[in-house]
Specification:
Belongs to the bacterial sugar transferase family. By secondary structure, the chain is mainly alpha-helical. It has one domain. The chain has nine helices and four strands, in the order αααββααβαβααα.
């Protein structure tokens, strides 16, 4: 599915991974953030604020009480789950989600997998539709996240991937996002192979170098579509 109407990679690049000028898996150093410098960061922040306020007013105002009630009635534990993630410039922050796992089994350093026994029935639905991510709009309002950007990872995963994936830390040149180019192209959820993470990094760095407000709108549109239809990689 091409992201037409905005400065996006060629179809082959979107279907596989953006091309780089160095060895496979490597990304160009010193380039992270050039795309964001070309456009106004204030415009991106304004989009984040306006979009997030609309989501809070039109969606979270009734979804939060509804989800909170269902979560509390179907499993013991808090409604919300927070976890330290790596943010811009490598600074840690607490990322918020609706709790989708049994509270006593929610190991903070273990990523969810297909058929994970820790996930509740309600949690499986929340994850499949990405509704569990909605509290992160509060992170956006606080300036810790953007609507679109590289997804933030758990701190221990950041350390692990930084050692084995070339250019991984370039993802932290910008504010992390609720959704991103890599996610709408299928690189979301559990990542078992280093090669898959390397491809995700290529999409993230391409976005950092070439992102635009128009592309953000396209990515959000695709994200909503995938949330409605469901995504095979949702965990």
């Amino acid at each position: 599915m091409a992201l037409a109407g905005a400065p996006v990679p060629r179809p082959t690049m979107l279907q596989r991974s953006p091309a780089v000028s160095h060895a496979p898996g490597a990304v160009r150093t010193g380039q992270a953030g050039t795309g964001h410098r070309r456009r106004s960061l204030r415009t991106k922040r304004a989009f984040d604020l306006v979009f997030s306020l609309l989501v809070v007013a039109l969606l979270l105002s009734w979804v939060v009480p509804l989800v909170a009630l269902v979560v509390k009635l179907t499993s013991r534990g808090p409604v919300f789950f927070r976890q330290l993630r790596t943010g811009k410039d490598g600074q840690p922050f607490y990322c918020y989600k609706f709790r989708s796992m049994r509270a006593h089994n929610a190991s903070p350093g273990t990523q969810a997998t297909a058929g994970d026994a820790r996930i509740t029935r309600v949690g499986a639905f929340l994850r499949k539709t990405s509704l569990d991510e909605l509290p992160q709009f509060l992170n956006v309002l606080r300036g810790e996240m953007s609507v679109v950007g590289p997804r933030p990872h758990m701190l221990q995963h950041t350390d692990e991937y930084a050692r084995v994936v070339p250019g991984f830390m370039q993802r932290h040149a910008v504010t992390p996002g609720i959704t991103g180019l890599a996610q709408v192209r299928g690189y979301r959820g559990e990542t078992k192979a280093v090669s898959a993470m390397a491809k995700r990094v290529r999409f993230d760095v391409w976005y950092i170098n070439h992102g635009s407000l128009g592309l953000d709108v396209k990515i959000v549109t695709l994200t909503v579509r995938q949330a409605v239809l469901g995504h095979p990689n949702a965990r």
